[in-house]
Amino acid sequence: MALEEDLLSQGHWPICGVDEAGRGPLAGPVVAAAVIIDPSHELRRVVKDSKKLSPVKRERIYERLISSEGVWVGVSFVDASSIDEMNILQAALKAMTEAVSDLGESPVIALVDGNIAPPLSCSCMPVIRGDQTEPSISAASIVAKVVRDRYMIRMDTLYPGYGFATHKGYPTKAHYEAIHSLGICPIHRRSFKGVG
Amino acid sequence: MRGEEIARKHLKKQGLKILETNFRTRQGELDIIARERDTLVFVEVKTALNTNFGNPLEWIPLWKQNRIVKVSQSYLLSRGLHDIPVRYDVVGVDADRNVCHVRDAFRPSSEFFV
User: Does the distance separating the beta carbons of B53 and A116 come in below 8 Å?
Assistant: First the structure.
């Protein structure tokens, strides 16, 4: 049985999942999401294996997550200049802390993807590969990814030429070449290798 | 407020009942012993992490985990507790008084079961 089901059956409620998107890119914010899903909600079965979802399916599930009764979603951005000031790990932790505070409901336990634990007013349990095993972490990873992707697509119109709509700021050959010919723009992370 | 006090307050707010603090044997010390429902929880408090919350498994090195497990076994014996579910938590308190409570932070390594 997944850890989350186990904790729910022991009576722990609410439990939120937390995940982040955008630790690797050369540009743009790191985005964290926190999601609580009601124990009996059908979306619990839908969000499994977020990594295997096609972008279209991911978008559809995202729409359902943010509009469903019985689902609480919190999101937080930490922008490129703050990432440069703090370093990416601290920025990701800050985003996670803020995403949990952004939930409309206070969780008693936060299941966090990976092996990091952000400071929180509830207790937390880091779960390695939790986005594959725990429904609420899967949901959080879908939200963080979709929100960040949409943001980067908007940034492509603001800072055209870099290809943000395609690579979303991740280090691709095209992205490095664009930095080389255009220089950097305000959403680039100057502290990252190959940017500053 | 000291780190352990901040940790205690945080745990109480989480619904854990504090049973004892600073249980000492010759082998070492347990910072906080608490109960959550039917589970006995041994809590190690790690203070002054600056703001370097991150991988909690790196907060408590393996030798220290083993020592905590040993002392917790002395505790169980001294209180005559058998067959009670136990858990090992870690609470990090940083310089800005941010708290990170990791449930089930580590488990006894297999040698303790032989």
Answer: yes
